[in-house]
Write a structure and sequence with these properties.
The protein is of the alpha+beta class. Strands 3-2-1-4-5 form a five-stranded antiparallel sheet, with helices on one face. It is about 25% helix and about 45% strand. The protein has one domain (about 5-75): SH3 type barrels (Roll), CATH 2.30.30.140. The protein is built from one helix and five strands.
Length: about 80
Amino acid sequence: MCLAVPMEVRSVDGFNASCEAMGVHRDVSLFMLQGESVEPGDHLLVHVGYAIKKVSADDAREAWKLFDEILASDA
C-alpha cells in the first residue's frame, strides 16, 4: 500500500517545489505534473518526493484530520 501526504507549496523552481506540511519542509519533484500549473499556496499529494496530484485546500485539511484521528486512536 502507498501513502501520499498532502503538502502546501511554498515556492516553485522549474520542476521542483519547496513544500510544507505540519511543520515539515521537503523539496518535491513536479515532474509527474508536467503541463499542470503549480503555484505557491497550492496543495499537492506527495509520495516519496514526487507530487502526484493537485488537491484542494479543503481536501488537504480533511486528510490531515483523518491522519490525526488514526494516530490518536492508536494511543
